[in-house]
Design a protein that fits this description.
Helix content is about 30%, strand content about 25%. The chain has helices at about 80-95, 105-110, 130-135, 140-165, 170-185, 220-230, 255-260, 280-290, and strands spanning about 10, 15-20, 25-30, 40, 50-55, 115, 125-130, 190-200, 205-215, 235-250, 275. It folds into three domains: about 1-60, no CATH class; about 80-135, no CATH class; about 190-290. A four-stranded antiparallel sheet has the order 10-8-9-11. A three-stranded antiparallel sheet has the order 3-4-5, with no helix packed on it. A two-stranded antiparallel ribbon has the order 1-2. The chain is globular and about 60 Å long. It is an alpha+beta fold. Helix 4 (about 140-165) packs antiparallel against helix 5.
Length: about 290
Amino acid sequence: MTEIWLEYGLDQHGNLVHIAGTPERGTTSLRCPYCQGDLIARKGHQVIWHFAHEGKTCAPTLRCNDGPSLPLYHDLTLGLTPSQFVTLQTISTVGYPDYNGRRNLIALTSKGLAIWNPYRGKGGGYGLTKLGKILFGELSLNLFCQVQVPLIEKRMEELRLKAKTGDPVAQVDLRIFRAQVKRIRVSTLYFLEIQGEHMQEKGDIVIPLTIYKVGVTTRTVEERVMEIVADLRQHFTDKSVQVLGAWPGRGNVESYFKFKYKKWNYPLGSLTEYFAFDDVKPVMRDLRRMPD
């Protein structure tokens, strides 16, 4: 990522407005919280929705790190270089880095991603920590929450301390971070089952299909389901939508869920949050074990 995701703009009253809360696409009436510049709403299908500057992008939003992004939310790379990721992958499978990867051990252990395990193999070996397992989708949703929540709290405290120095950029960072935390806490994670007659791309073949959808909403799940039913009209001739579960306050989990289960992703045109699972029971167990 070459810059922070700017998901909030300022309205005429100075209030933060999330990009999902504006119907506008393209030129907006909102301003950048950092430089007051005019913003354009980027609401496409390839990357997360975000605001871009209509003119030159200001320096605070060009930062590659140290911004107000939530830990383990949009970015699950943990800032690793490609070489460090390969080393961590090797540790995951065999317990030891190869010769070229040994120089990465200090960085990986200091980041809390790998740890020496004296009981691995015959003479011990390195293993992944809970944090390290996230990069490979090996952590349950329950344990993911246990890892992410303390990191969010730690980042909040860091921003508080920095904002107290009077740095105007840090004060905006803190304000945006608080808004993001509030948003995930008022969001509900939902999981749906969709059954129906699916129209193939050529339009002349219809097959029975069962797929699943994950998503978050700040409204009622029932309201969101009505929109989803409308979205599916171009893909299904006949369908039923069943809510398999809803978890209030778990807006933080959606990104990791999609990453963990990306093998089963089943896009419908531009609709990307759908999955075709061979067996949905383990997925439901994973969801239901999350803390309230």
